Amino acid sequence: MITQSSPVILWLRKDLRIDDNAALAAAVETGAPVLPVYIREPEHLGTGPLGAAQSWWLHHSLHELSARFTALGSPIILRSGPASEVLDALIAETGAEAVFWNRRYDPKGIAIDSPLKQSLVARGIAVKSFAGQLMHEPSRLLTGSGTPYRVYTPFWRAFAGAGDPPSPVKAPARIPAAKQTVESDVLNDWNLTPTKPDWASTFREVFTPGEMAAQVRLEAFLKNGLDRYDKGRDFPAGHATSLLSPHLAMGEISPARIWHATIGLVDTVGEDNLIRFRKELVWREFSYHLLFHFPDLATRNWNDRFDSFAWGENETFFTLWTKGQTGYPIVDAGMRELWRHGTMHNRVRMIAASFLIKDLLIDWRRGEEWFRDTLLDADPASNPASWQWVAGSGADASPWFRIFNPTLQGEKFDPKGDYVRRFVPELAKLDAKYIHRPFEAPLAELARAGITLGKTYPRPIVDHAQARQQALDAYGATG
Predict the structure, then answer these.
(1) What is the DSSP string of 405-441?
(2) How far is Cα 319 from Cα 393, in angstroms, rounded to an integer?
């Protein structure tokens, strides 16, 4: 039984928000003081930010959220260490009789939470966990035969057929504070932000971390973006995507809040746009469904046929790919956007991933690891699910023989070259006819644009036609 004389510990994880936070709402509803805590768990456990870029986001998200919690009455306590040790210390310091949290669905998070809950309950501590990070519970949404979904389309049909997800819960107007004085780490001492050099300085050209920024971003997208999403989302020079994924990754906005914000908009934005956007939200849900039922998604091929695939180990190629120096402008623009803004347009992610896997024959796990460290929206489910989809080794994957031609992809989805000119400025003066194939431009055109291939911009590191055939031969040789 939870009494009102002792605090409820609210353990915040990747749910850095006040709105539609089921654990927070339930804690406040008890009438007991609420002690919000964010625990910086050991990095090897992989339950916090997935990489350096996301660490930058976490710092600024916690800074903003701490101010909001303080304004509502109960400041966030920061602690470092294994969750079990930190929670034990807080229980001893405050006499807390309950711990509330929103459930995690990644393998490392589950491996911590399940035994921790059992241990606390055995000692008489009330533990309550809540849904809210996803719109479905992976353990419950199953096929008619009781097995996990392996194909996206039936998953989408089942999800959509179940009706709208539960309505979001409102943010509390006040959070009662614990009477005890509880020591907290200092956020700046965690050194989550880079210095000397500050390679994250350009992230703010696009993003502002925090719950309030997430809500502003959603409102702006619904007014100007969703109405052209279905077709516009594939063109990286446009502005038809929501850019909500970093906010979702850190839980600054819930997927249910986003879904419910789109209800009633079909007449305004059109059915195709609305359904396409919702399908992208549900692709994230499907990715977590896969991760929950296949915990090794980031390290093992879903389709074990690929276990015998003969991956190459050309470190020079991999380095040139990470630096955006492949000689294929659309690939290079994407990789440089990633470094500059901590994000990459979705269409270009597929092109860049296909190039690494199928043109360079480099293991998809290398690419997934790089994205995990450099993406602000790094996600333990979406990252590996999407990389395996491109590789052809995943559930409901794109077939191996679907090999993107980076030149044709660039010409189709960046026809004027505006995206390339933005992120590969050394090609900015090149005529649109050659912007995606500078290696075919006449010497006079290159000279006019101030380009010397092999010096100011690289020649292609592989010939795509030859690389494509090599990839098909390698796939054909698998068991």
Answers:
(1) -HHHHHHHHSTT-HHHHHH-GGGTTS-TTTTT-GGGS
(2) 24
Q: Which domains does the chain have, with CATH numbers?
A: 8-133 (3.40.50.620), 134-166+210-293 (1.25.40.80), 304-476 (1.10.579.10)
Dist CA 97 CA 101 (whole Å): 14
Q: Please state, for a pLDDT cut of 90, what percent of the chain lies above it.
A: 92
Digit-coded pLDDT (tens) for 173-229: 999 999 989 999 999 999 999 988 999 999 999 999 999 999 999 999 999 999 999
Distance CA 114, CA 130 (A): 13
Active site members = 280, 283, 311, 346, 364, 387
CA–CA dist 336, 343 (Å, integer)? 9
What are 345's two structure tokens? 């347009």
Provide the pLDDT for residue 479.
55
- Phi then psi for 437, rounded to 5 degrees? -145, 60
Please tell me the distance from the alpha carbon of residue 150 to that of residue 144, in angstroms, as a whole number: 13
Task: Give start and end residues of each alpha helix (H) in 136-226.
Answer: 152-161, 211-223
Q: Which residues of the chain have pLDDT under 70?
A: 1, 479
pTM of the predicted protein model: 0.96
- Tell how strand 8-12 and strand 126-130 pair up: unpaired
DSSP letter at 201?
T
